[in-house]
């Protein structure tokens, strides 16, 4: 029964995480386009910067939520706590750096989800 519960949790988490990651990819694209526009349109810098920073802050918040959710799933499937704590700190370090590493963090989270799904399917 515990295996069934774990499988259900992993399945639900994978769907939830996939939806959040798609949203982050869309927001990242919007932020990236806005950021590129800023570098070529100095006269609009102040107006657009607030919006792009809001998007970036939201992306970081969403990635932290996903890292927490992944840690919960890992805990349920009995992956060692050190792995969870390393994952959380690594992801938070990655996502608080710069625009390129937000994309990298999203890609890494996709990889973790896929690995988790494959190892428990």
TrEMBL record:
Lineage: Eukaryota, Fungi, Dikarya, Ascomycota, Pezizomycotina
Protein name as catalogued: Uncharacterized protein
Domain of life: Eukaryota
